[in-house]
Inner membrane component domain-containing protein
Amino acid sequence: MSDARPTERTVMGALGNVLWVVLGGFVFFLGYLITGAVLALTIVGLPFAFAIWRVGLYALLPFNRRVVDRKNSLGSGCLGVCFNLLWLFLFGWEIALAHLGMALLCAVTIIGIPFAMAHVKLAILALWPFGKEIV
């Protein structure tokens, strides 16, 4: 029975990703992509652009993936905390609020509960993206 579990997760995750993209996930991805492109126009915004693109790729296909802490990287030390605090006050709370609002809308129906959980995970990542890795 344990052999069937990873395959079942993969199939359900793939189905979840397809439904996610069709039912609005692509819109979030485009929003992240465009925002990252605007931030990348300046040298100062480049680290934030990379962070928002990482979140955007996770927002495109959130199922069968998870967020883990990245060890020994530029974003995991003191500089990462500074970037995360700046991010939180400038962009993070607004993005997280949008995802939490969508999570509430998705949670109204039983079918939307997995999508609501994905939005909650995205909201958490949107609050503190530096020093995180999506696997």
Q: What stands out?
A: Residues 93 and 127 are 6 Å apart (CA to CA). The chain has a mean pLDDT of 89. The first strand starts at residue 67 and ends at 69.
